[in-house]
Structures
1.
Amino acid sequence: MAQAISIQKLLDEFERLPGIGPKSAQRIVYWLLNANEESAQRLASAIVEVKETVHFCPRCFNYAEGEFCAICTDERRDQSLLMVVSEPRDITAIERTHEFSGLYHVLGGAISPIDGIGPDDLHVKELLERLANTEIQEVILATNPNVEGETTATYLARLIKPLGIKASRLASGLPVGGDLEFADEVTLGRAIESRREL
Amino acid sequence: MAQAISIQKLLDEFERLPGIGPKSAQRIVYWLLNANEESAQRLASAIVEVKETVHFCPRCFNYAEGEFCAICTDERRDQSLLMVVSEPRDITAIERTHEFSGLYHVLGGAISPIDGIGPDDLHVKELLERLANTEIQEVILATNPNVEGETTATYLARLIKPLGIKASRLASGLPVGGDLEFADEVTLGRAIESRREL
């Protein structure tokens, strides 16, 4: 065998990561072989550290390092507004917009009868407990705009509205900067339906 | 800040790797967060291990784990044939072809006056020492088919031939399975020039 065993082992480990094929893995491994000791050590330590320190926030199920996550502990956030998302990564996307200053609740997925995922497999019970005990006035249902996400949003809206809490959904429409010509018909239909008066 | 500090740190570390942009880094980090402890630990350990165990073979400058590299220690390899390459990664590419069973010599680059890289910055002295002391009958100069690679090959051939050792170069021509129509003119010109009689 031409390849050192530890190089092959590292190649295998990188190839298991999402979006990394054999060529990318090889490029990274050769980069690491040429990198200084400290640089490689930093990557290895960061991986270990993330697994040691990151857990789920017991309140909103976002990733957290302290007892609660950075958003739950931030008192400047609007405590009356709650956004429900499927995964912690959706929070990152929303935070990037700087358009939302409320709190979050991560479901940990979406209702999908085909995959055998029902409301009991998601953090729905915990959501209802939060709504019963807090000053939340509006819940934005920000699950994905696909079948599972829509089903989940509809299901949750039916539970939330009887509590006297407003339930809303992110708008669907044409992507900003997009081209009308290339929009799919469902998105375009939704954009017409939800047109704004000027 | 919405992101846990250790997550941001790991994102930064992955983004420093070649070919990994912010989106890929995020995908990998979320994958690791969902992966089991052992799986993440394996990746971290493989990185540390590669830096601890891999060094350069003192004979051919390939990556090695033992005293010498796996190819230098393999007695079944043809000791009369030596292939000169720029980087250890070139050995991986050649080995994949299963067409070469000789030994290698890694230069650690190619002659490039623009980048200030001359013969003294490469393992040329060590190559000449090997050629003086061993039974090598032919040296295949497998540096890249670009300006630096050609310059290096020409330079080395001038040193090797006076020793009574054959110097050869990998053939240039059309890639197998390629399309004549899409070949660049230099490659196509080279293919005409080096045409084989049938």
2.
Amino acid sequence: LNRIKASGLKLRFCTNETQATREKFVKKLQGLGFDISVAEVTAPAPAACRILKERGLRPHLLVHNDLLPEFAELDKANPNCVVIGDAAENFTYANLNKAFRVLIGMEKPVLISLGRGRYYKETDGLKLDVGAYMKALEYACDVEAEVVGKPARPFFESALAEMGVPPQQAIMIGDDIVNDVGGAQQCGMRAVQVRTGKYRSVHILHP
Amino acid sequence: LNRIKASGLKLRFCTNETQATREKFVKKLQGLGFDISVAEVTAPAPAACRILKERGLRPHLLVHNDLLPEFAELDKANPNCVVIGDAAENFTYANLNKAFRVLIGMEKPVLISLGRGRYYKETDGLKLDVGAYMKALEYACDVEAEVVGKPARPFFESALAEMGVPPQQAIMIGDDIVNDVGGAQQCGMRAVQVRTGKYRSVHILHP
């Protein structure tokens, strides 16, 4: 990372983190010794905020409490869309019904999902991720969610736009074969998979 | 109903009720003046019990508390499948993760759903129905649920088998164009839609 920065190459950190603000995310990585600032991070919540502002949408939020500050500036009165993230403990029966009622009350429901993950692991076991709850609302309202985050194309495109770099001049580096490598390639970028983190050798195709 | 019974025609009541036992369901209808007994009712929970017994399945139950007595006789230790019904307040984040972990821990996950409804109305507003939560687990585990209840074909077939009547000699009467009329027709039965309950004139096709 330090060598990339020293070389003068442009750099963005693309994360699907939706359980914390960019501030908290950056502090964690700084604590691990990484040279990173909030302005260098592309994350689903601020990307969603941009979309909401552009389209004059007022969100009903079903997200993690720690993510709420990312949406502080937006008008949330009389909502005309639902934004769902990995809300964790906020995924209660009452909150799911609330989000559903906002959607079903709209002539053309708008559901924006901060990712489409199936599940993830925590110290106390596997947990359902935002994608599962997104599917529940999609089915109930007969609507397709707009996914913000990796591997969605607009997410990579906004990172590229922020750097002012065309896709064919950019390289994505990540550990996730679908979200990082696949998403970037779909966007016209080249991609490198690191052999750490989620890397599994079975994902390599042997000719 | 009294005239059908007096005529000597065979009769079954087919319900998708999964928030109460057949006993409670029958008492409610008796209270409204209907001549009905538990033995005349085909409902998802007992139909699921039959399937579980036939296939040696031990269920992890994610259902309404009032439905639990229907599963009293089954072995539920060391579960090898998940049965989901309209669990209402039991649809907590913790319970959904529990059911998910049972499924994802199986080599070939078996998910049995007592219906596929999207939502329904109660006095305090619209609620997500079992189908939405079924979709969440299906997506997270990359599995397709086996649906027990109307409009699934095996459900009508078991009602017919209980009466000992072939489909072409049976008529389904109901208010739901998809679950009652469509499901029965798929099964080779004729069907009559009543103009009460869920009936909406927009569902009629004008040639």
3.
Amino acid sequence: MKKMQYVYPFADGDKSMKSLLGGKGANLAEMARIGLPVPPGFVVTTEACNHYLNKGNQLWPDLKSEILENLKSLEEKTGRTFGGAKPLLISVRSGAVVSMPGMMDTVLNLGLNSDTCESLARETGDRRFALDCYRRFIQMFGDVVLKVNHYSFENFITAAREKRKVRTDSELEPSDLEKLIEDYLATVRKESGRDFPQDPNEQLFLAVEAVFSSWNTNRAVVYRRAHRIPDDLGTAVNIQAMVFGNLSDNSGTGVAFTRNPANGEPYLYGEYLLNAQGEDVVAGTRTPNPISELKKELPAVYEQFKAVCEKLEKHYRDMQDIEFTIERGKLYMLQTRTGKRTASAAVRIAVDMVEEGLISTNDALLRVEPSQLEQLMHRRIDPDISLVEAARGLPASPGAASGKVVFNADKAQEMAQSGESVLLVRPETTPDDIHGIIAAQGVLTSRGGMTSHAAVVARGMGKPCVCGCEALRIDLARGRFNIGGEEYEEGEILSIDGLTGQVFFGAVPLIEPQFSDEFYTLLGWADRVRRLKIRANADNPDDAILAIEMGAQGIGLCRTEHMFMAADRIPVVQKMILAGSLEDREAALKELLPMQLEDFKGIFKAMAGKPVTIRLLDPPLHEFLPDKEVLLVELERLNLQGGDPGSISEKEQMLQKVSALSEFNPMLGHRGCRLGLVYPEIYRMQVKAIFLALFELVDEGIEARLLQPEIMIPLVGHREEMERMKVLVDDTARTVFNGSGRELPYSVGTMIELPRACLVADQLAKSAEFFSFGTNDLTQTTLGYSRDDSEGKFLPFYLQQKIIPANPFAELDCEGVGQLVKMGVEKGRQSRPGIKLGICGEHGGDPSSVEFFNDIGLDYVSCSPYRLPIARLAAAHAVLRKNE
Amino acid sequence: MKKMQYVYPFADGDKSMKSLLGGKGANLAEMARIGLPVPPGFVVTTEACNHYLNKGNQLWPDLKSEILENLKSLEEKTGRTFGGAKPLLISVRSGAVVSMPGMMDTVLNLGLNSDTCESLARETGDRRFALDCYRRFIQMFGDVVLKVNHYSFENFITAAREKRKVRTDSELEPSDLEKLIEDYLATVRKESGRDFPQDPNEQLFLAVEAVFSSWNTNRAVVYRRAHRIPDDLGTAVNIQAMVFGNLSDNSGTGVAFTRNPANGEPYLYGEYLLNAQGEDVVAGTRTPNPISELKKELPAVYEQFKAVCEKLEKHYRDMQDIEFTIERGKLYMLQTRTGKRTASAAVRIAVDMVEEGLISTNDALLRVEPSQLEQLMHRRIDPDISLVEAARGLPASPGAASGKVVFNADKAQEMAQSGESVLLVRPETTPDDIHGIIAAQGVLTSRGGMTSHAAVVARGMGKPCVCGCEALRIDLARGRFNIGGEEYEEGEILSIDGLTGQVFFGAVPLIEPQFSDEFYTLLGWADRVRRLKIRANADNPDDAILAIEMGAQGIGLCRTEHMFMAADRIPVVQKMILAGSLEDREAALKELLPMQLEDFKGIFKAMAGKPVTIRLLDPPLHEFLPDKEVLLVELERLNLQGGDPGSISEKEQMLQKVSALSEFNPMLGHRGCRLGLVYPEIYRMQVKAIFLALFELVDEGIEARLLQPEIMIPLVGHREEMERMKVLVDDTARTVFNGSGRELPYSVGTMIELPRACLVADQLAKSAEFFSFGTNDLTQTTLGYSRDDSEGKFLPFYLQQKIIPANPFAELDCEGVGQLVKMGVEKGRQSRPGIKLGICGEHGGDPSSVEFFNDIGLDYVSCSPYRLPIARLAAAHAVLRKNE
């Protein structure tokens, strides 16, 4: 049996080996393979990690030998010796299969000890440099591997700077560094209970173990859960010869994107620091320079770097996120990966790359995640309102947000769960804050740049973020912050604009989003590819107009009850409900008819030439009456205070009616077609209003054939219900037609939103001309989850505990609810082959659900207007994925 | 093409031709065929009826000719002429396929007119008789065919009797009858606008049309709906030569059952009148004599009749319901059919007939309708007492009860404990009233339907209940109630009959249910035939003992929450719910443990040797707390009246907790295993109590192998839920086992009560060792019907309008819910072939549902103890029907 290979030199890998070598390792190997300057190194595989985690968290002898063998060839390649007189120093970095920024740990300068530090000093002739490396190594290794609190180190170095009265570490003298090393070593001894390991091999194995173990830190687990990354992928470990950005003034380090990750503009974007190591860019003690300045400082290196970037983009056919180091004027590539980008950047880059001939239109479609488009749909601060800027930071992630200032991620989560809008405000964020960022409307930090943790994570989530707002001073201990010399309490409301970096006091007016040309181009490509038609849920003329703008091919759900809720209508609706006789009820309905008629006219007019599905009244009648508990309390008060007998009696009557109509489980109560059967006069009025509206439009000159009304009966579960409701609609239509002496085409169908409706869909399709699956209610009944209750109660717990994989109201439960939908589709088509099939639950705007609906052969999905672009793109993805 | 035959002489028919000739016609033909004395005649078929009803309600020429041809041979057989000098008179009677007593119409003495009346007078030498026949004919034909109000006739005859000062019609003089005939003919002319038809053929055709048309009278339609008789069966018409019971003193007419239809005793049972026609027996003006007296009055006829009855019973192998006429000492049979009987008679007759060798035991089983047994299971009002009904509600749970009216559950318990009989009277009941229901003799509510809380709980306990008695108005505040405009104090004695829904003032004499030897014999035969096992739903030791008596083979559902509801436990339960910390909750649970333990001990002891399925806590926690609306009102009152700050703050805290826990749709809320996952300590306590109880029983000497605990997890919908709950049970068991140093076998399964559970039953069966279908909740979610709401709201309307065929909470909706159950069965067996499958919804005691459960292959059904005999018999029927 061939022995399992757990270690691969870069020379033996390429970019296709991501699952074995991790993303970073595979790309390092690939860059080496295509001739780019990469320091030599090797990768310990993800399989080794899984083996380690499953087998008692111990490195085993064979693995150690394999690592040491590869170390040996590294020594040969570099002409250096690990722990020797011309010491080989190495970096040890994690590298998961899927990029998990900030989640895993890194150790640089490994191999240093008191001896090799002196050797390095001798070799480079720069004792300060060697001591600085050693100081950094002890600090990083102490923190990451030995779990020494990093503040313990920070305190010493801060004290050293203060004592020397300098601003940066690079201004410290070698003697300061010697003292610092002494203090660091003592700290390690004190806090970890052991001496700092001087044996480089021991350092190496401890570091590898630390990388492996970090796969299961809490923050890594949380990140994987948030991004649905499987737990069994494991991480690789990249071991690479060190190059030094802190060796001289023509050394340096930096990060760059091949295009602007915020807006997609096709220019190099990034920042660098000379005479620095990687962590200095992130730490924020020195402000990095924009990459364009490198052209002046080190023009040759800049040109070389630019060429490398172009080569990488052509090679990977996508925008790259690159890390590099310059050692004494020589460029080294330390990482490349597909760059994260905002939605607008994603759209711009995808469309540009098609124009540049790099990718096909189908590639471009797949480059943009449909759910990402949601970012573009966010409202922005109204530019016409003049606001007084309170402060300004870096525009780290576009979009605007308002909320109460909260300093703590746990508290942010808690307040958000209880329904408050919060803004997470921190000096800087760490991976421990992830849940707070998820919960917040936006993120504001006082430190850190465009590539700081907060910026990267917020952009990934499409969450507004302003970084490095130095005018903001945060006093965590006292729960206060200071802007412009004024103090404010935590809880104050602030607004941020992630597009401009501005910060404002109070909540600010937001406006509707605007879309780029590339956005429309991409969606046009999506429309050519997709099979599913896309409709909108719209209840009024304004929404219908918006729906058309967003590309709707019809209205899939017009909820007529929303027309009842307007302030001027509710008294008439209540009169209708409280009516003591059929005559009284019909009189009230007569008043409502012209109101509904006007709404219908506006909607049909906006949608002329496209189908409009109108759902007849659905909610239980008590929803239109005052709240029972409020009435009870008011009545008790009136009685005790000897209130006016007239108003007592009025309230008593209302209470009686409310009590008679109230329900223990309104979701399963007297609603939908159950209302239409018991009170047919209500549905008759609605149907009449629909046809009268249509005739008025015809009179106004709209061609009759352009009007495509689809009348939808809600909550049908039995064949008889559908048949009788069809008769009611047909009879009412006939009466209106006879009255006007002309006819109009229309169709009658039903909303499939009960398990029973799916089970007997063949019977329903005998009289229903279309089905629209109401997956919101179908989810409630199939799972037995009341949406009103579960989202605030057990559902967050269920999600957190992974009892269910996703919120079934956001993402269709394909396994359960989906099975019923599929059954409904098959049975419906069985008895009426040409039946029109769609869905109008909120899942119509969820990408993974849209893919399911495409695959089971629905004709259309319908969603809220602002989710239409998502649905259009998702429907295109569904086709492309199916053909993959 | 052979012409369709629409008319059959009796000689061409037999009892197998019921669907064509109707029940009456087929049996008349059969009796003629086996040589019994039947006046000759013929039958116009049900097909003729349907043809008539479908083709414009007109007799067509071919049918008329066919009738006249048969009339011709009747003339030949009898030597008489229709409308002639020796006139043939005939009876025209309806005869549906299924017996529909009183639903259809009959005309006697047809063929009489002014001429044939005189002929008949001459022929019989009895002018009074002839005039009496003519008078009867005009009255009957006028009423039934010409739709003349029958009071118009009654008024004349009453006046005539009064004028002559006699009590019966037979005492009227011929001159009185002549005058009466004159008045009758004038009345017909005046009210129907036409002369009374004198042409016998016209009389005949009009009568046939009237019978056909009566198929669609309102009362017939209502009867068919109530008894689920298809509308397209149609009725036959029986045309038969008249024989006259009113011809002389040795003539007469009567009805008889071959056995006692009330108790099944094997003796002739019936009554007769001499010198009378059929309608006189019914009219009540003369009191008929018991059949036994015929032996003295006309001994030869009696003996002949007795022999005929014996022959008929042997021939039909069932108890017969017979009509006969005696004409001048000669016996004629006019009808025989299977006799309707009470449940106890049905049981007695079936068992007797097996002993008499008439039928097999399987026949006997099929002779008793399972649902009929319900009559036998409860205390009843002494049927010999005549009572005046005070009000009437829904017959929610059979049995009768008397007691003092009490509005409050605590008070009911208190009074019952001090030995008083009480009736719990409430607008509606909630789980908080359980102890009151237990304590009361019966329950009466003014609101709620057949499956309201009160009804379900009462049926479960076998306690009489009348629901939704709207004539009863309860004023809780003033401690009074109102019936029929009169006010009464709490404490008044009322009686209820849960079989009829009747309410009476005062105590009424009750008789205990007693089971006859035949009852036990029959159920013993059922047990030998059935394949389904029968278990009981029982929540406490008393119910378990009762279950055993009623033949339970195990407990299919022990609801542990009922153990929480007892008055002495609810404060501890509330303490547990209100606990601010896990420690406090566990402390309260520790108090509850010994209470649950005791209950479990009692149940397991009673059921030793049989399986017991214990369902862990199911209802949402707010069900154990005070009502929110009551708290709100109390708090408002306390605040306004300046109440004690301590108790205000206490109430405020309670209100806060109740509000936090309250739900819009508790049915779809935080209950079932969702509780067990969020509060695992509750389930752990319950599981611990189960095993500690079992070990105590082992210590008391019960063999461990006789104890068969099955622990059931409620409301599972996802695989993860089942897997985690299984781990919780196993871990808890392991802890108890380790603590006691020994083990016990047990199994863990789930209640399948959500559509999703059926859809993913294959996944659930991976960890569930048994499924018990909770068809109550499954019906609620599959149909989207809240049981608490729909019964009082749209469901009665739906049933009345035939939108749905039956109440889905009483009879399983096989088409919808049944489809899911079947899917659950198939998928469950697919991944665990030996999985134990049962149901424990109320459908377990419904015969048609039991048949479905048998057919889809369940292992057992479970129902409330008092429904066990029904389920046992229904399960036997299911097997016999399948083999038919």
4.
Amino acid sequence: MSESRIDYSLYLVTDRGLSRGRSTLEIVRAAVRGGVTCVQLREKTGSTRGFIEEAVSVKAFLNSCGVPLIINDRVDVAMAVGADGVHLGQSDMPLAAARPLVGASMVIGISAESIRDAVAAQAAGADYLGVSPVFTTPTKADTAAPLGLAGLRAIREAVKTPLVAIGGLNCSNAAEAIRNGADGIAVVSAIVAAEDPEQAARAIRREIDTARRPWV
Amino acid sequence: MSESRIDYSLYLVTDRGLSRGRSTLEIVRAAVRGGVTCVQLREKTGSTRGFIEEAVSVKAFLNSCGVPLIINDRVDVAMAVGADGVHLGQSDMPLAAARPLVGASMVIGISAESIRDAVAAQAAGADYLGVSPVFTTPTKADTAAPLGLAGLRAIREAVKTPLVAIGGLNCSNAAEAIRNGADGIAVVSAIVAAEDPEQAARAIRREIDTARRPWV
């Protein structure tokens, strides 16, 4: 396991299909201005070359502002573009196969839908866990039943690995996810599909920051 | 460029959609019994984990009979399973990005649809070229106009890299592709969709062997 150097606070996951015709780079730039601390590029359609070209352009921007880039699923794309991390779902490459390819310095995030997934991923050396779905999500059709805040908290009690809550997260529930053990909030549609992604990101970031400083 | 250790003579490319409900492993076993010398696994749908699991099972069989395994597109899958090679189309990872990841020992094949593609791929260190489409093919909808035998010959004259002819190849035209400069014949539907893949492979292999020994 590599030392985690990533601030997971507000973790954007891209989705071209929800972007209302705006480019992924355009969404990412706006979201980072609004306070996103980490970006995961997720491209489930299109060619490998197109994914690499997009990742290269997004990475050039992110490097200029010190925000890390994580690639969904494609270990080869992550390696080719020198991404900071790769995110692997339970149907992607197993962590034990990916670690020898990417080495110790690349962050590997694993999707966990249960305590069992989370404990296994921690034991295998995951750098962070994407805990999902915390709430009902419109983004993915194939997910399990929502874990809820109690499910998130139970995973928090079971593992020490940083947890990123994902699934139906938005301005109205980000704070309670933080208070129930999430180290970060992953957002897809609440930013990507927003009329104003920058303002949407800023509002969620404010909720996260406030939830961490209950004394303010 | 690595020393090519692969016999490209009869090069099977899998296609689950054409397999009439038979498993890829079943097709591969029959095709190897019929004389296939090299297998490329091509999986354009399904999960990464599913692709890896299939590749592991096909590789276990191929290792037992000394036939090399090449993975289509997915450099990460090729690395994870320790494949002999990876085949990259013009929309896949560029060779220059893939070589540092896979090292010198893994074979990299590149699709070439023109003399220009072929010369560029040779210069970049491709281990072999998939020259396509030589004939009209029912397998892929997005290919360029067929090169024909004259186009294959022109590429043969332009490069020294081993050439594998692909696109509409079958028992009736394999021999003329060999006589026009192909080092091997890549076959999809003529084996994968055949009533008897073993017999289909054997018949094509016989054509190839005969075309190489015109004195017999």
